[in-house]
């Protein structure tokens, strides 16, 4: 009888895991980016509750800066998170392109990348001049307006020799370089254009390691590898340091390290209260990609508390994906629109106000707060595929529009999840 009970329990666990529809989650994750689009929307737009917006961006400086993405629940275009998002979307395609192709999502994934890279090309108006923000965070956050109604300040901000910004320049270079790899073999001319812009953006002073790594992979240029090798913090070679740091991170994730990352009682790795899942999804892409390289090398990671093999990294990743998609103490999916129980009030201006296609009358700044932000009801538009900030350290989640620390979704949350879901779908 005991053996039968154990067998039934095992079968129940496996059936629960198998019941998670990774393919639908993958489709939704890419669809999410269409809900974040700024500019003139294409005829094949699938998130039909959205309309054209911010069509005069860049007019203050005489440059066409339309397009790109709103990064979260607001209506500002911040290029730093947009570039990081584009880099991780591209990495998802670079590592898991065959899986995306097999699930008929490669075209949608490339379209999501290109919506970002086309915008970065517009922003890169001269070899040493890059526009990096459109809009003003203070005035935008003081209003609750759907993008189609925006009347807040839309100033354009740039970096150049007199206004340095090596972090955003390097992230943009990384995005363009990574995207060029994603498009190689699919659109050679566009891939070449992206490399050209990546090289120029990457010449900003104080180029960072992340950009150099992607530029080396995209171009094979030895100078970028030399740059990586020179950036060391001890007598140990830089490349060895990078690997040791990565190995240590993996050990701590799977609880075999010397400084293990905290977990909630329900088993989710825990980082901090504000938008915790952005760190989790990024970590999962790194873990899954590294497991592929370890498998190819038939290698493991030597951890303080035992070796970690690729299959253990995959098992860990799947456990975290399943938690995000509903296998957690609240039985809630933290991907909006996925499953039967998911956040209904994500902190998002466009989703929380009726679509302009259904209600074309302008909804002003304060009317948005009075009539919609404070309304205790589900958002009228489902922001399909969005991953909210997620639960707290005790697996609790407050589904409230005003709870931006937990209920706001961002493009950086979802981008790395695309590749992870492609692997499991």
UniProtKB/TrEMBL annotation:
Domain spans labelled Glycoside hydrolase family: 22-201, 204-233, 236-421
* Protein name in UniProt: Endoglucanase
Q: What is its EC number?
A: 3.2.1.4
**Catalyses which reaction?**
Endohydrolysis of (1->4)-beta-D-glucosidic linkages in cellulose, lichenin and cereal beta-D-glucans
Keyword entries, A-Z = Carbohydrate metabolism, Cellulose degradation, Glycosidase, Hydrolase, Polysaccharide degradation, Signal
Q: Which GO terms describe its molecular function?
A: cellulase activity
Q: Which residues form the active site?
A: 347
């Amino acid at each position: 009888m005991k053996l039968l009970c154990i067998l039934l329990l095992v079968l129940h666990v496996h059936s629960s895991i198998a019941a998670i529809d990774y393919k639908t989650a993958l489709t939704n994750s890419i669809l999410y980016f269409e809900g974040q689009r700024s500019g003139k929307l294409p005829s094949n737009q699938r998130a039909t509750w959205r309309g054209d917006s911010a069509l005069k961006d860049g007019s203050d400086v005489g440059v066409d800066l339309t397009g790109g993405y709103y990064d979260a629940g607001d209506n500002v275009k911040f290029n730093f998170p947009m570039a990081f998002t584009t880099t991780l979307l591209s990495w998802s395609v670079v590592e898991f392109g065959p899986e995306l192709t097999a699930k008929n999502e490669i075209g949608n994934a490339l379209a999501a990348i290109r919506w970002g890279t086309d915008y970065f090309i517009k922003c890169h108006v001269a070899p040493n001049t890059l526009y990096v923000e459109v809009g003003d965070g203070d005035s935008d956050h003081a209003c609750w307006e759907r993008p189609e109604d925006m009347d807040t300040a839309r100033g354009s901000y740039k970096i150049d020799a007199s206004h340095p910004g090596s972090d955003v320049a390097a992230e943009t270079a990384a995005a363009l370089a990574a995207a060029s790899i994603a498009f190689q073999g699919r659109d050679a001319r566009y891939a070449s254009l992206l490399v050209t812009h990546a090289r120029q953006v990457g010449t900003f002073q104080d180029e960072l390691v992340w950009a150099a790594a992607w530029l080396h992979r995209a171009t094979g240029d030895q100078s970028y590898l030399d740059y990586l090798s020179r950036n060391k913090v001890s007598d140990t070679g830089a490349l060895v340091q990078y690997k040791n740091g990565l190995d240590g991170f993996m050990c701590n994730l799977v609880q075999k390290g010397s400084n293990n990352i905290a977990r909630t009682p329900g088993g989710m790795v825990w980082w901090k209260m504000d938008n915790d899942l952005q760190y989790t999804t990024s970590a999962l892409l790194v873990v899954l990609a590294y497991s592929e390289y370890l498998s190819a090398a038939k290698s493991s990671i030597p951890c303080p508390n035992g070796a970690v093999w690729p299959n253990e990294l995959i098992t860990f990743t799947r456990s975290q994906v399943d938690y995000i998609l509903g296998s957690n103490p609240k039985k809630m999916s933290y991907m909006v629109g996925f499953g039967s129980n998911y956040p209904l009030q994500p902190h998002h201006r466009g989703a929380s106000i009726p679509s302009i296609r259904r209600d074309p009358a302008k909804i002003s700044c304060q009317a948005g707060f009075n009539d919609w932000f404070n309304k205790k009801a589900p958002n009228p538009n489902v922001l399909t595929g969005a991953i909210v900030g997620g639960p707290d350290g005790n697996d609790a989640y407050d589904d409230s529009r005003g709870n931006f620390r937990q209920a706001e979704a961002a493009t950086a949350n979802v981008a790395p999840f695309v590749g992870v879901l492609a692997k499991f779908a």
